[in-house]
Amino acid sequence: MLIRKDPEVLTMANEDVQRTLEELSRNLKESKAWLEEAQRVAHLGYWVWDLETNHLIWSDETYRIFGLTPQEGLIDLDKVREMIHPDDREAVFRTAGEAVRSGARADCEHRLFRPNGEMRIVHSLGDLKKDSSGRPYQIFGTTQDITERKRAEEAFQEISRKLLESNARLEEAQRIANVGHYSWNLIENRVVWSDEVYRIYGLSPQQGPIDLAMVREMIHPADRELVFHAAEDALQSEVPVDIEHRLVRPDGEVRTIHSVGTVKRDTSGRPYEMFGTAQDVTDRRRSEEALKQSQFYLSEGQRLAHMGSWAFNDSGHYWSDELYKIYGLDPQNGAPTVEQYLELIHPQDRTSMAESIKRMQEEHCGFDQIERIVRPDGQLRYIRAVAIPVIEQEVFKGFIGTTMDVTEQELLTQELRREQAYLTEAQSLTHIGSWAANFATMQNFHLSDETYRIHGLDPRQGPTPLERFWATLHPEDEPVVRATIENAIRTGTDYEIHEFRIRRADDGQIRVLRSIGHRNPAGEIGEYVGITMDITELKRAEEEREKLRQLEADLAHINRVNMLGELSAALAHEIKQPIAASITSANACLRWLARDPPDLERARAAAARIEEDGNRAADVINRLRSFYKKGSPPKREAVDIKEILREMTALFRTEALRHSVRIHSELHEERPHVLADRVQLQQVFMNLMLNALEAMKDSGGELTITSRSNPEGQLVVSISDTGVGLPAENTERIFDAFHTTKPQGTGMGLAITRSIVEAHGGRVWATANQGAGATLHFTLPAKAGARA
Fold first, then answer.
1. Residues 612 and 639 in one domain
2. 296 and 378 assigned to the same domain
3. 252 near 246, Cβ under 8 Å?
4. Where are the beta strands (DSSP E) in 406-449?
5. The CATH number of the domain where 715 resides is what?
6. Domain check: are 471 and 392 in the same one?
7. For residues 570 and 655, is the Cβ–Cβ distance under 8 A?
8. Could you give the CA distance from residue 387 to residue 357 in angstroms, rounded to a whole number?
9. How many beta carbons lie within 10 A of that of residue 253, not counting itself?
10. Residue range 346-353: mean pLDDT, rounded
11. Environment class of 190 (CB within 10 Å of its CB; exposed 0-12, middle 13-18, buried 19+)
């Protein structure tokens, strides 16, 4: 590789160079004019930033680089900030801030706008100075206009002769900046390196020309063709060489260098020399890569977490990319103002947020709150905003913060709150409390509000120990409760205590409870979750229902007696008929026996008829006895509907003939059996058939009994008549107690019917026929699917 000196980089010095220049200032008075001229020609100025006073001093050339007139005194830092290109401003001051914090050299390229609107590109280096205690107090640096490198290089060559006496200092500057220069004599094909170039290549400095073939071999194989192609292009054109490439040192270490070179030509335009610089930018590139990687990780982490970051201070307002996405804004438009930001807040939250921002600015305090925003696309989102004030040496510097999109979490939280409210309300309505506890360690993990209320405790008083709940147990029931739970713990099983009493802690009232506990298989020994139900009212209701059931049974018995009274004539006929037939058959039997010889065969037939008629009369009397006797506790058993219907038809046959009513049935053949109390089912058929007969007593007609199965697997029985039909309005009232349309009726027949049917798990209803009359239906569980 062909190398030559680059004067513009040779003048770049860090703090050490500045101190050296200060120490040697007396010796350099005679060259001060030359150095000033060198700065002007190389467009290289220096600056001093006093960190304690925040004052800035520029050299004249620095003024000229910025397009300003040199002046005495301090520089307006805010004015400098405004001159830096807006896109580079943050990076420049971030680099300076990092240099102050870490002590690393400040090194950055950036653009600036001169007052006349011209944009220039400058390269700034700065080193930090610290006092004896290690506290930073000053940054000394250089700023070079690198907009026109070729012009700057030519200017440096022109004044390089004037800087021979300061060559040692410039070499030191090269060492500090890791910048070396080279010169390639194109006529003699000879290359000369500065000492720093040797060090960059991992070689020991030496006198004399460089072995160009060795340099070629040290360039990374992947970059070798690119480097020499760039050199060839520079020779063929007037475009300077400006390239980055890798090299492999003798010890195997790979370094990255930045090479810049310009070609000198004679009056005929023939190139005769290439002069340039080589700078080791390995650490800078690694830092840049690490910074890019870090920024990528940060950006990716924010994207995955839906969290953006922001900062607000005198330097400006910073928003991360993810923050713009959260608010649905375009980063190209920059961070919004406070007014623009408040426009994004949901109208109902805007006043509260404005007050928070005002308090934050006035009191320099942070905040942490959830608010709603309406994005430009109209989408409603929930965000959590956190702000923290930045205080340095008791001086307020600004704010930093984060904003997280918590829409999904907030909606889920709201849903959980609603469900919790529903659960709490449901527990309150049903008097069922939930809990989780360890009975072995006597620890409560969870107690619903209803559990507290059931035991007469106040949930607002905070966590209550398990002993307080044990203390409410009724003394007579406590041994059973404890024994049940202890046995469940010992065997590792669930438990259920169907009924036990407590004495409420607040009013001393006795309540009856039921408790169910489920062992937590993933928990420790004794851990259970369960429910406690207040069944006091249920217990009372069951007692009242039992009393009501007994009253209904008594009323049904009375009702049957009344009905049989109404049917006395028909019943007398039913009994008289088989008795009369028996007497006739007995007389015939005597006559057959009185013959000589006796006609035994005919006498035997007459005796058989007597037995048959006697049994028929006994059946009628047995039926009457079953209707007359007082009901015992209901007994569910398989009952044949056909048999019940035959009994009822026989009972009402005479009454039906008297009123010209024909009775016939169409029963389902496959499922004629139901699970029911026989006497109560007889009561249902008697009530409904008698009701139908009375509806047709003045006109005659037809009474039809049918059965079928419904989709739920129940047996549906329908009793239809052709009588006067149903009331025009409020048909359901016919099943109400004491509601009747008959002058002598009690209004209890259909009410008792409904009570019996519903007690069997069915229902009863009435429909009007398309022609005359009405149909009353009731359902009963079939034997296979019935409830016991």
1. no
2. yes
3. no
4. 432-438, 443-447
5. 3.30.565.10
6. no
7. yes
8. 10
9. 10
10. 89
11. middle
**Confidence (pLDDT) at 557:** 55
Over 80: is that where the pLDDT of 627 sits? Answer: no
Is pLDDT larger for residue 325 or for residue 671? 325
Residues of the chain by 3-state class (helix, strand, coil), percent to 5:
45, 25, 25
Residue found by looking up tokens 């050296």 in the block: 20
Identify whether 13 is part of a domain.
Answer: no
- DSSP strand E in 520-622: where? 527-534
Tell whether 20 is covered by a domain: no
Structure tokens at 87: 């896109």
| Tally of structural domains, the chain | 6
Higher pLDDT, 566 or 721: 721
Is position 38 within any domain? no
φ, ψ (nearest 5 deg) of residue 488:
-65, -40
Q: Which range marks the domain in which residue 49 is found?
A: 43-145
Residue ending a domain, choose from 357, 387, 405:
405
In the predicted structure, residue 634 carries a pLDDT above the cut 80 = no
What's the CA angle centered on 465, arms 464 and 467, to 5 degrees? 130
Q: Which one has a higher pLDDT value, 184 or 73?
A: 184
CB-based contacts of 719: which residues, under 8 Å, 6+ apart? 685, 688, 689, 692, 703, 704, 705, 775, 776, 777
The reply to whether 527 and 550 lie within a common domain is: no
Residues contacting residue 730 through CB under 8 Å, at least 6 positions apart: none
Residue 84 DSSP label: B
Structure tokens of 189? 């094909």
**Average of pLDDT values for 318-323?**
84
Q: pLDDT tens digit string along 230-247?
A: 888 888 887 888 888 999
Residue 719 lies in a domain: yes
Tell me the average pLDDT across 185-212.
82
Verify that 230 and 259 share a domain, yes or no.
Answer: yes
Token look-up 């016991």 returns: 788
Sign of the four-CA dihedral 524, 529, 534, 538: negative
Say yes or no: 616 and 641 in one domain. Answer: no
Nearest alpha carbon to residue 422 among 430, 11, 336: 430
Q: Say if residue 2's pLDDT is above 80.
A: no
* CATH of residue 388: 3.30.450.20
Percent of the chain, pLDDT > 70?
A: 78
At 568, the pLDDT band (50, 70, 90 cuts) reads low
Q: Are residues 427 and 390 in the same domain?
A: no
pLDDT tens digits, one per residue of 388-404:
888 888 888 888 888 88
pLDDT band at 710 (very low <50, low <70, confident <90, very high): confident
Same domain, yes or no: 368 and 467: no
Question: Nearest-CA neighbor of 242 among 9, 413, 399, 398?
Answer: 9
Point out the domain boundary residue: 251, 280, 309.
280
CA distances from 644 to 478, 517, 640, 776 (A): 51, 47, 7, 17
The answer, yes or no, to whether residue 500 has pLDDT greater than 80, is yes
Q: With a cut of 70, say whether residue 636 has pLDDT above it.
A: yes
**Is the bond into 711 cis (omega within 30 degrees of 0)?**
no
